[in-house]
Amino acid sequence: MSAPDWLQPLVDASRDVLPEELSRYRPTGDGGRKAAVLILFGEGQDGPDVLLVQRSDGLRAHAGQPAFPGGAEEQGDGGPVGAALREAQEETGLDPGGVEVLAELPTLALPVSAFVVTPVIGWWREPTEVRAVDHGEIAAVARVPVAELVDPANRLRIRHPAGHIGPAFRVRDMLVWGFTGGLLDRVLELGGFARPWLDEARVEDLPEDRLALSLRTAPPDYDL
Fold this sequence. Notes:
By secondary structure, the chain is α+β, with helices and mostly antiparallel strands. It has one domain (5-212): Nucleoside Triphosphate Pyrophosphohydrolase. The protein is built from five helices and twelve strands. It has helices at 8-14, 80-92, 146-150, 178-190, 208-214; strands at 33-44, 47-55, 66-67, 70-72, 99-104, 108-110, 115-124, 138-145, 155-159, 165-171, 174-176, 203-205. The strands form two sheets. Strands 1, 2, 3, 4, 5, 6, 7 and 8 form an eight-stranded mixed beta sheet that branches. Strands 11-10-9-12 form a four-stranded mixed beta sheet. A hairpin with a 4-residue loop joins strand 6 and strand 7 (115-124). 39% of the residues are buried.
């Protein structure tokens, strides 16, 4: 089954999108360790959905954070697409053969862990069962319906003590914020999925437990 019509606006928009339209952090000439994430859209019982993972609290970097499946490129990956698919398989058990890669977004910087990250957009043509393969790395895996993500009742902005305020989502017992929250917000907007918020001024402080986890590896003036 080819990618559905509802994904075409996102594919079209990805051709011309600029890095600054996706994140305030862009790669510099200093480089960084290459990484990739898989923004995987599927279609389940509740309509279009996105695959997210929640990282385990015991990790040294990005502990406890919801994220797209992904990680550092390794020798043999052949680039961002190979890295994104391999990491998604290792983290969630999905079959990469059932994923149709639709586009690569511009590479973005993730200064807190010195990565430069390429988001890869995929269509889950043949979904397979997913789970947290290694609970030492991934605490949970969820297919989150797009309808829940764009529901204004689940939208908010999170204020980090450093002063930055960024988009966030409260869905499926997860607070999706930081790099992933910002990128997800922009992808939903580019794809034409976003809905007007009921209260765009809704701002909450980052919960203390999430802040404590983020500060394990982050400089005090940086928010993930």
